[in-house]
Write a structure and sequence with these properties.
single chain, alpha+beta, 3 domains, 13-stranded antiparallel sheet, 16 helices, globular
């Protein structure tokens, strides 16, 4: 048996160790290599990486725009990544460095090896130079660092904000965006509020918004513990917290507060990460992302200070092409690696010898896993039940679409006798939503219409159940319908099983009364509309989970819900419903509708969670979710017409967020009528006489101890062997 190495999955500092190309300094981008666009900031004393206009089409108007960018036109082409043969050719121009510390020496910019630190040993593999992707960019940490930069800048957190006095002085030194330059008078300086800055009250609103968010069970950690309402700070976010924050929560809040010229590119970048993180990638959609991400970064270049554009802000421009070559990001990111590193770290018992402890723990885990295969009657990690029990659904050819098989092992229910009115409502909803009974539904409506009855829908709702029962009984005596349809017509047992929670369609649902004192929210539900309803979706909150039993060991799961207001067909607004230009939906939780029709089938339900508005207490924004462990895989088989395979039965597409186009250039970068920060003019630093840069080589060992670009995601802490602080080792 032979093994082949497809690529490496690593964080960005490890990228330098594995590839040999240093990810620090002015040539930090391994895709742009020697053509990396870099600028040394005089006051910020760091490199920034902009120049994203190179990736636009040659005839794009922004290439000729000077005032909104760096006062220069852009005529360069986008850099072409190095192929494997190019790397081998460049490796031939320098000698492999020896291990150990070496003395520093001046760098020659004309040297052929540019940012190479060493030769990658992977090129000893005969096929390595032919791979299109050799090392994956770390999308997980890229997204986290971008989220931290935006959040730190919005809240103006010390050490996290990219919009500081030095950033404004760099704008002044570069002679761009004059309305953001420091204003000095009477020994003091003032900074105008930029279009991405928040006032003090808005910062409190953002912290209050994040503090009050309740998300579904297992969806993310409790953000409340990370928010400091007094100091208007957010700290201690895990990597996945930033993933949820950047893609779901921040866009909801920002859209109503900040100007459109900031909101549009922010939403575009958020949707870009959501698209490449999708379980299914469409090549056409990836090609579109490759064309739009340069425009998104250029829009941000127009607004944000150069100090914002560190190397992490530049790397997204290469992610869409990498996803096209390598496939979904979920299989190439650092999430499973970091989680397993945390598992290995938990094996450490003797911190004087962590490697030996990890080896012993790993061997013990492997031995126990092997032995557990021989003990079928003992509870082990291999046969332990799932956290949530899944509701079974009978998809056999003889079953009905609404029926599931009764699972007698399910517990946690109470019996409740349904009233006649409730039974009639339930029976009517089940029959009218059963695919096999659609013909009789249409037949009854036609009869009422031909008879010239008034209020056809009302009479249909009142009379259809009894009519259907008589009709099916007659057909059953003639042998024209099966026993399941006959059981459907007779109705369920009036003694229903009522649950507080259930797991169905890949979602975990709870009723509203159970989670009043919880920090999670699993009662939000949405039912998709069809063409007859104008494709409007109905949003509500689960009040009761009911299982009704039919003969032949069949059951139907129903949700009794409170439904929020929705507009009429082809409208985006009503008294309790608003859909803005970006596609986000807000509903008023005090305006309820369809009180006489509260039931839906469990198999129709999809999950949403509601984020409360800090200004309007009764209004909430809707966040739609995708089911876990379910994929829209096509069915295997050849169609006679050659059109391809049918899609899977479960449609898991989430509603799109719209990003409107904004025309024209940015003419003002400040928020008028709002006061910004101020301070003593003596605090303004002078430009350093010498630019340190990277003209001197760092130590060729690329030691991690001196690596200032290490990205700590807060998930796997550093291994610190400090005897005085034993408790902090296990985080």
């Amino acid at each position: 048996m032979h093994a082949a190495l497809m690529w490496t999955i690593n964080d960005f500092p490890a990228y330098a160790m594995l590839s040999g190309w240093s990810t620090k300094g002015k040539l930090a981008c391994p895709y742009c290599h020697m053509h990396t666009d870099h600028l040394w900031l005089k006051y910020g004393r760091k490199y920034c990486y902009m120049g994203h206009r190179r990736f636009l089409s040659r005839d794009h108007k922004w290439r000729r725009n000077k005032s909104c960018f760096n006062n220069e036109t852009e005529n360069r082409d986008a850099p072409v990544p190095l192929s494997g043969n190019d790397v081998v050719q460049q490796h031939a121009s320098f000698e492999q460095e020896t291990f150990g510390k070496t003395r520093k020496r001046k760098r020659d910019d004309d040297n052929k090896w540019h940012n190479w630190r060493n030769k990658s040993i992977f090129f000893d593999l005969p096929y390595w130079k032919n791979l299109l992707i050799r090392h994956n960019l770390d999308v997980m940490h890229i997204e986290k660092n971008i989220c931290d930069s935006f959040l730190g800048t919005l809240l103006d957190m010390d050490g996290k904000s990219k919009d500081t006095l030095k950033a404004r002085l760099d704008l002044q030194h570069l002679k761009i965006r004059k309305d953001l330059h420091p204003n000095v008078s009477n020994g003091k300086y003032t900074l105008n509020l930029a279009c991405y800055n928040l006032t003090k009250d808005e910062k409190k609103m953002l912290c209050k918004f994040l503090h009050g968010v309740r998300m579904p069970d297992g969806y993310a950690s409790n953000l409340k513990r990370c928010v400091d309402l007094e100091g208007c700070k957010v700290s201690g976010l895990k990597t996945h917290d930033c993933h949820v924050l950047f893609q779901k929560l921040l866009p909801i809040w920002v859209r109503n507060i900040l100007p459109k010229k900031f909101v549009v590119p922010f939403l575009e970048l958020s949707l870009f990460f959501a698209a490449i993180y999708s379980k299914e990638l469409n090549p056409e959609e990836l090609a579109k992302l490759s064309r739009t991400i340069p425009e998104t970064l250029c829009r941000l270049e127009m607004i944000l200070p150069p100090q914002f554009f560190d190397i992490m802000m530049h790397l997204p421009i290469h992610l869409a092409e990498e996803a096209r070559l390598g496939g979904p990001v979920a299989y190439r990111c650092m999430y499973p690696v970091e989680r397993y590193l945390r598992t290995l770290k938990g094996y450490v018992r003797n911190k004087a010898h962590p490697e030996g402890s990890i080896a012993e723990g790993y061997i013990a885990e492997e031995c126990l896993t092997f032995c557990s295969h021989f003990f079928g009657n003992i509870d082990t990690k291999l046969n332990q039940p799932e956290r949530h029990e899944a509701a079974a659904r009978d998809e056999g050819p003889a079953g009905l679409s609404v029926f599931g098989t009764i699972d007698h092992s399910k517990k946690g229910f109470t019996f409740e006798t349904l009233s006649k009115a409730e039974m009639k409502q339930i029976r009517h909803y089940i029959i009218t939503n059963c695919e096999e009974s659609n013909s009789w539904t249409d037949e009854h409506l036609d009869e009422l219409t031909r008879a010239g009855a008034h209020s056809v829908q009302k009479r249909h709702r009142d009379e259809f159940v009894d009519w259907f029962e008589r009709r099916i009984q007659a057909l059953h005596k003639e042998g024209k319908v099966n026993d399941l349809l006959y059981a459907l017509s007779r109705g369920p047992d009036p003694r229903a099983r009522v649950y507080n929670r259930t797991f169905i369609n890949g979602f975990f649902f709870r009723n509203d009364s159970v989670e009043r004192d919880l920090n999670t929210q699993n009662s939000g539900v949405v039912v998709r509309g069809d063409a007859r309803s104008g494709n409007l979706d109905w949003f509500g909150v689960i009040k009761k989970i009911i299982c009704v039993d039919f003969p032949s060991e069949k059951e139907v799961v129903l949700f009794q819900c409170d439904w929020f207001d929705v507009p009429s067909a082809n409208k985006n607004q009503s008294t309790g419903y608003k859909k803005d230009d970006y596609g986000y939906i807000d509903v008023d939780t005090t305006r309820l509708r369809y009180r006489d029709d509260p039931y839906i089938l469990g198999i129709q339900a999809e999950q949403v969670f509601y984020v409360r508005d800090v200004k309007k207490i009764n209004w909430v924004s809707i966040v739609r979710l995708k089911p876990r462990d379910l994929y829209a895989m096509p069915s295997v088989g050849n169609d006679d017409d050659g059109t391809g395979a049918d899609a899977d039965l479960l449609d898991i597409v989430v509603g799109d967020t719209n990003v409107p186009d904004i025309d024209g250039d940015v003419e003002s970068w400040s928020r008028s009528g709002m006061e910004g920060a101020s301070g003593d003019a003596s605090d303004i630093p002078k430009i350093p006489e010498v630019d340190p840069g990277y003209d001197e080589l760092q130590s060729d060992s690329d030691s991690c101890d001196d690596d200032e670009t290490y990205i700590n995601d807060g998930h796997v802490p550093h291994l610190v062997l400090d005897e005085s602080d034993d408790d902090e080792f296990f985080v």
